[in-house]
Nitroreductase family protein
Amino acid sequence: MDGKNFKEIPLDFTFIEENEMRPRAKSFNELLQKRRTVRDFSNKSVPRDIIEQCLLAANSAPSGANRQPWHFAVITNPEKKKKIREGAEEEEREFYQSRAPQDWLDALAPLGTDANKPFLERAPYLIAIFSQKFELNNEGNKTKNYYVAESVGIATGLLVAALHNAGLATLTHTPAPMKFLNKILDRPDTEKPLMVLVVGYPENDAKVPAISRKSLEQFTSFHEN
Ligand code: IYR
């Protein structure tokens, strides 16, 4: 043995020539630039195996101490979707009518969002994403996870990218508070709902808000000297 007290395996890494790397980087960017958050969902069904592949892609995310501190609850059951819509709309009415400060409402105005969430019943899939601050081991003892928010955020980002790459539209939906999800989906109290990802096809005549993305100069700084 090599004296290390953990097991290692050879890295399976694909080296790519720079002249091939450039077009690959560009085309991946172009693919992701076409992703838009969608709110006009069609009720057209999506095969489960496609969703499963995207979930496996998400589960490749790096995570604190490799704890993979996430749970993805995949909902297609119409009654459960209805309950989730009811729970979300109740919170959202509260949010839009009283909880949200004016500056937040002003920030949302260009997106045209309101408390009505019909897509929660219409889209074929809802994926409720939970983060696991703790895990129960076999003896029922709690063990702590690390960098949970970061880990689940990365996994969620990969899921959004994987679904877009597969040809599906998504909406990152964050009704707050979201504890009603634990109840409907029978998830333990140790799990905190992060968001509901709405997944499906856009409606044929779907429209999206006219928004822009920051230029490279606006959101980066290169420190070369
Ligand atoms: N959760 C609300 C409000 C909302 C908040 C943000 I920040 C958004 O980018 C979009 C919506 C809703 O889903 O309507």
About this structure: The radius of gyration is 20 Å. The first strand starts at residue 70 and ends at 75.
